[in-house]
UniProtKB/TrEMBL annotation:
Positions in coiled-coil regions: none
Organism classification: Bacteria, Bacillati, Actinomycetota, Actinomycetes, Micromonosporales
NCBIfam families registered for this protein in UniProt: EPS_sugtrans
InterPro entries found in the cross-reference section: Bact_transf, EPS_sugar_tfrase
Region (Disordered): 1-22
Positions with biased composition (Polar residues): 7-19
Family affiliation: Belongs to the bacterial sugar transferase family.
Name of protein: Undecaprenyl-phosphate galactose phosphotransferase
Keywords: Membrane, Transferase, Transmembrane, Transmembrane helix
Domain Bacterial sugar transferase: 307-494
Length: 499
């Protein structure tokens, strides 16, 4: 619901020290408490996972207790009490229960893997120090099984949390955006793109005066010159996000942090660095001044070489094992529509080089000639042309599009080095000039799938598709590629946005 009104109020008098003081009773309890029951659930799941791994190891591996001859009671105590409790302690020590990493991002899972390495090292060291003859197979089995169970349970718990955040708003943070109106609206757009992140803006507090919001519709109420802590209590917020230039006023951010001490309100700073992933940003404090260092995108080096090698190997074996499937699809196309099996079209690739893409034909042979007559019915924007009910697509072709099987021949382009498994989608070479931000897509090879495809496919606008492609270019990593490939499987099964 848009708002076109605002409230204005003079700031209350400050204390003699010049630092605004909270009127609340000083309490170190946080206002946002969703993470407490969630963390307790994770602890129980981790404990059960470690005990289950020990049970499987004892049940399926013979002579697991060979190093405890005559001391089977000690063995079972270590397996079902000591080791699970050790897992919990090491997980806690590695920060895997830190609320900052729960519910979003990969950091939580990285810390679990780090704990796994620590557990293996500790068990090996203890068995060596106590001269206990433990089977290396047993150690590997119980450790890897516990890791798999813990990761699976945490992933499942995260999915439940995401559903709760999307449907009911539970487990989310209520946020006040503090800054100029354009900066606050930009942060609002960014945090609301992903309801699973659990950030719900409930108000905007202007730092440039109430006149900036006059006559402008906003998605949340706008306030100006209000006491921030009073506003937090009024709108039941638990987080203040300082946007852009609001943090540039000398001393203001520090005084705000002082004022929030003990109130249970979180303070976050949203600098004007949009669409830049965390691994590229590093804090370098110099004489008390935290400087954000932004690294260049990694578009070369060992990681890039590994990506190209993975592309070629996967394309080769993909074509090898999918040959029967490709043959059946080709036969279906010949029976459904007269004409060639494949559709070849010039596309723009890496660094602007043109290549001919391979696809199974899903349209009538005169589709390109009929395109001009359908231009006014185009349901997409920008450089895209899409129709949900395109009359040029024959029946079997629509099924291929819905399942994305028409894209399989592009493995040939990947094998030739013209495309990658993951990257921005290649666009037709005759759809206009690639200028401005759009041209940055060409810094990497186009892909069979990409961030655009797993985020909505044809349902997205052109601007949103370009934004996602540029985000991929700027924040590429081999791990990110693997996660996109994994997400592609579920997107294809759901058939969302495919037409």
């Amino acid at each position: 619901m848009p708002y076109d009104s605002f409230e204005w109020q003079q700031d209350p008098p400050q204390s003699s020290s010049g630092v605004p003081r909270s009127a609340w009773t000083r309490s170190h309890k946080r206002l946002s408490r969703w993470h407490r029951p969630y963390t307790l659930i994770l602890i129980i799941l981790d404990l059960v996972s470690a005990m289950l791994a020990s049970l499987l190891a004892v049940s399926f591996i013979q002579k697991a207790s060979s190093g405890f001859q005559g001391r089977e009671g000690v063995f079972y105590f270590v397996a079902f009490v000591g080791l699970p409790l050790g897992w919990l302690f090491i997980l806690w020590a590695n920060g895997s229960y830190d609320r900052r990493y729960l519910g979003l991002g990969s950091e939580e899972f990285k810390r679990v893997v780090r704990a796994f390495v620590t557990v293996v090292a500790c068990v090996s060291l203890l068995s060596f120090a106590t001269k206990t003859q433990l089977s290396r197979v047993t150690i590997a089995y119980v450790s890897i099984a516990a890791l798999i169970f813990i990761l699976f349970c945490r992933y499942s718990a995260r999915q439940v949390l995401h559903v709760a955040r999307k449907r009911t708003g539970h487990g989310a943070h209520r946020m006040i955006l503090m800054g100029t109106l354009p900066e606050a609206l930009e942060v609002y757009t960014a945090v609301t793109r992903s309801p699973a992140a659990g950030l719900i803006p409930v108000a905007i507090h202007l730092t440039d005066g109430y006149s900036a919001a006059r006559g402008i519709e906003t998605p949340v109420p706008v306030y100006a010159s209000r006491d921030v802590l009073a506003l937090v209590r009024e709108v039941s917020a638990d987080t203040i996000a300082v946007c852009g230039s609001a943090s540039a006023e000398p001393g203001e951010l520090r005084r705000l942090a002082w004022a929030l001490e003990g109130t249970g309100v979180d303070l976050v700073v949203a600098p004007q660095l949009t669409d830049i992933a965390g691994p590229r940003v590093h804090i370098r404090p110099i004489e008390g001044l935290p400087l954000l260092h932004v690294e260049e995108p990694t578009l070369s080096g060992p990681g890039w070489l590994a990506k190209n090698l993975l592309d070629r190997v996967a394309a080769f074996f993909g074509l090898l094992f999918l040959t029967p499937v490709l043959g059946i699809i080709a036969l279906g196309i010949r029976l459904a529509s007269p004409g060639p099996v494949f559709f070849r079209q010039p596309r723009v690739g890496h660094e602007g080089r043109t290549f001919r893409v391979w696809k199974f034909r899903t349209m009538d042979v005169d589709a390109e000639e009929r395109k001009a007559t359908l231009e006014e019915l185009n349901e997409a924007d920008g450089m895209l042309f899409k129709l949900k009910e395109d009359p040029r697509i024959f029946k079997f072709g629509s099924k291929l599009r819905a399942t994305s099987l028409d894209e399989l021949p592009q493995l040939i382009n990947v094998l030739k080095g013209e495309m990658s498994l993951v990257g921005p989608r290649p666009l037709p070479a005759d759809d206009g000039d690639y200028l401005g931000d759009v041209r940055r897509r060409l810094l990497v090879r186009p892909g069979i799938t990409g961030l655009w495809q797993v985020s909505g496919r044809s349902d997205l606008s052109w601007d949103e598709a370009v934004r996602l492609d540029l985000y991929y270019v700027d924040n590429w990593s081999l791990t990110y590629d693997l996660s996109i490939l994994w997400r592609t499987i579920w997107v294809v099964l759901k058939r969302k946005g495919a037409y």
